[in-house]
């Protein structure tokens, strides 16, 4: 990618997301198989795990070392408040150990390891460094270390999302989906089933490839997907990357809609009514995290609608990486009024018109937006 605008940033971002996915897979297997109990609740009762802090510290350290900490502005979801509490000593120790284990493997991904293990204060500093508030000017990295933490804890789908915003516009996006299979045919199966079956009869890589990393650069008109790095293999560009493209389906009766799993921040009843009004017949694909964007970007689904309940504010790290990947793959992302999402106002998507609509193409998008206007007055949102 040398010579391309944002080529260096995208190169580093893809490599570090691969690292983060490997870290998360190791930790999720530990949680699912016996549970170390290293999960805490934040002030809003949402869960946060060793993986959230470890990924944030790892990505922060890599970006700061590569580009220079004085040149790096990072907006990310986690802070050190919970981790610094007296009763979190075990959590903090686990995070420090996990970060150092991950960074020690950096050369496998073509990145540099620290000369010696980071100490506790250095890990906390790396997490705390992600305290930018963004804004309309300059470059800002946007990170959701584990998007869909509930999915992660439950052994289900989640994502590692990293994007770069310049002057309020998302210019690159990388989406790591550690449990999202490379092959669409395997979507209906839970990965734990395949894990169990693999021990009995190891499948070929073509048959069962758990996990993928998607990425795109603004203006390229292309979005890509790579398999994860397995075993002792090293990351070498292009790492079997293949182009992905949105579905060509524009008839709502044939479309598949993605929905959030959790009801807490999305109105499923309004979405269901809207789906009925446009003639959606297929069962909705309810999936945790920004994996919904991944599903649309590579043509596994055609539509994602999210209408937040009153008082809920959408965060930019829940949408930035997925947005640019879907758009470069040929899709459309707007608010429910048909306007582009505004990433220039800081950590939140301010002045959002009702909700978010992600479609595989302009024709389907126009039909959905028209239906939103027709259905809104009868809703209770």
Plain-language structure description:
By secondary structure, this protein is of the alpha+beta class. It folds into 2 domains: 7-244, Fructose-1,6-Bisphosphatase, subunit A, domain 1 (Fructose-1,6-Bisphosphatase, Chain A, domain 1), CATH 3.30.540.10; 252-378, 3-Layer(aba) Sandwich (D-Maltodextrin-Binding Protein, domain 2), CATH 3.40.190. Helix content is 33%, strand content 17%. It is built from 10 helices and 14 strands. The protein has helices spanning 7-33, 50-67, 89-104, 120-128, 149-153, 191-200, 268-278, 291-297, 320-328, 362-376; strands at residues 39-41, 47-49, 74-76, 139-147, 159-166, 169-177, 212-217, 223-226, 242-244, 257-259, 285-286, 303-306, 332-335, 356-359. A 7-stranded mixed beta sheet has the order 3-4-5-6-7-8-9, sandwiched between helices. Strands 11-10-12-14-13 form a 5-stranded mixed beta sheet, sandwiched between helices. Strands 1-2 form a two-stranded antiparallel sheet. Strand 7 (212-217) and strand 8 (223-226) form a beta hairpin. It is globular and about 60 Å long. Mg(2+) binds at residues 77, 144, 147, 318. Its cofactor is Mg(2+). GO terms for molecular function: 3'(2'),5'-bisphosphate nucleotidase activity; metal ion binding. It catalyses: adenosine 3',5'-bisphosphate + H2O = AMP + phosphate; 3'-phosphoadenylyl sulfate + H2O = adenosine 5'-phosphosulfate + phosphate. Pfam families: Inositol_P.
